[in-house]
C-alpha cells in the first residue's frame, strides 16, 4: 500500500499505534509488554520502511510541534506504561534511545536486505536500552 499524502501516512501510524496500545493494555508494564512493543516496532518498520521513516520524526517534534506526531508519541508512552503525571526521566530517556536506535537499525536492515539476520539483534539492543538486561544473541 502506498499513501497519497503525508497526512495519510501519519494517520496510518496513529491507527497502528492505537491498535498496538489496545493489544498490550491487559499486560502489566514490564519486560514482556516492552518486548511485545519492541517486536511490533521492528516488524512495522520492516513492513513499512517509508512510513517508519516519517514516524521517526516523532523524536524531532517539539512538545508543541506537529500535534499528530505528538499524539503518536503519547500513544507509545501509554503502551509502554509511562505515567505522564509522574514522569520517570530515566524511563523516558531509555524509551527514546531504544526506539530511535531500533528505527534506524531496522531501516538499515531493510536497505541491506538483512532483516532476518538483524532482527534478534535489533530487538535485544532495544531491550537492553530499556534496561532489561544484556542477553547475547547468536
Amount of beta strand: under 5%
Summing up helix and strand content along with how strands pair, one would put the structural category as mainly alpha
Mean pLDDT: 88
Summed up, the helix count is: 6
State the helical fraction. 55-70%
Largest sheet: none
**Low-pLDDT stretches:** none
Order of helices and strands: HHHHHH
Q: How many separate domains make up the residues?
A: 1
User: How many beta-strand segments?
Assistant: 0
> Based on CA inertia axes, which overall geometry fits?
globular
Compute the gyration radius: what is it? Answer: 14 Å
What's the end-to-end separation, in Å? 34 Å
Q: What's the multimeric state?
A: single chain
Plain-language structure description:
This protein is mainly alpha-helical and 138 residues long. The protein has one domain (6-129). Helix content is 68%, strand content 0%. It is built from six helices and no strands. It has helices at residues 6-24, 31-47, 49-55, 67-79, 89-111, 115-129. Helix 2 packs across helix 3 (49-55), helix 2 packs parallel to helix 5 (89-111) and helix 5 runs antiparallel to helix 6. The longest helix has 23 residues, at 89-111. It is globular, with a radius of gyration of 14 Å. The mean pLDDT is 88.
Amino acid at each position: 500500500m502506498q499513501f497519497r499524502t503525508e497526512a495519510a501516512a501519519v494517520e496510518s501510524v496513529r491507527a497502528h499505534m492505537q491498535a498496538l496500545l489496545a493489544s498490550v493494555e491487559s499486560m502489566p508494564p514490564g519486560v514482556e509488554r516492552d518486548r511485545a512493543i519492541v517486536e511490533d516496532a521492528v516488524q512495522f518498520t520492516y513492513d513499512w520502511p517509508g512510513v517508519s521513516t516519517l514516524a521517526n520524526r516523532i523524536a524531532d517534534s517539539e512538545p508543541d510541534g506537529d500535534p499528530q506526531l505528538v499524539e503518536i508519541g503519547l500513544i507509545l508512552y501509554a503502551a509502554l506504561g509511562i505515567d505522564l503525571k509522574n514522569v520517570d526521566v530515566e524511563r523516558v530517556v531509555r524509551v527514546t534511545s531504544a526506539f530511535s536506535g531500533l528505527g534506524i537499525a531496522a531501516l538499515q536492515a531493510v536497505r541491506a536486505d538483512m532483516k532476518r539476520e538483524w532482527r534478534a539483534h535489533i530487538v535485544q539492543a532495544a531491550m537492553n536500552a530499556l534496561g532489561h538486561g544484556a542477553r547475547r544473541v547468536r
